[in-house]
Write a structure and sequence with these properties.
Distance between the termini: 80 Å
Shape: rod-shaped
Helix content: 40-55%
Oligomer: single chain
Radius of gyration: 33 Å
Number of strands: 2
């Protein structure tokens, strides 16, 4: 048995034991929850055109990335015609071909280039200008609007 004779040592001993006791009790209640794996949070990027992309895709091709319209020579999900592609290539210095329009990411990049010219808040104007000009754009907009979320 441990016998402590000096009052100073006795106080120091009690202080250390008290500290260890409090530390042990606190440590026992402070633990990390046990869960397998590692949770990482990833924010989804903001895409103000997501709904419009879906709606245009439904109207143009029913979401078919391999669609081709031989009458207009329009290709891909967004039905990009050679005249639009030539304009895009001239404006951006790109060298895409009509065959590249079957690659969704490239076609989306071209669609977004023109959509951003108008801005993210006027879907009607973007859709109409994507379709062309004239009275047909009203019918086109009504079809696109049908697929936009309420």
């Amino acid at each position: 048995m441990l016998v402590i004779r000096n009052d100073y040592l006795k106080m120091k001993f009690l202080k250390n034991v008290s500290f260890l006791l409090v530390f042990a009790l606190f440590s026992a209640t402070a633990y990390a929850p046990v869960r397998p794996g590692l949770d990482l949070l990833r924010d989804e990027p903001v895409n103000p055109f997501r709904e419009l992309i879906y709606a245009v895709g439904m109207v143009e091709t029913g979401l078919d990335t391999l669609a081709y319209n031989p009458l207009e020579e329009a290709a891909g999900y967004f039905q990009i015609r050679p005249v639009r592609l030539d304009d895009y290539n001239k404006r951006t210095g790109s060298r895409y071909s009509l065959k590249d329009m079957y690659n969704y990411r490239i076609a989306e990049k071209i669609f977004l280039y023109y959509a951003e010219q108008t801005g993210p808040y006027d879907f009607e104007k973007i859709a109409k200008s994507w379709n062309g000009s004239g009275s047909m754009t009203i019918d086109y907009w009504n079809k696109v609007k049908y697929y936009l979320a309420d």
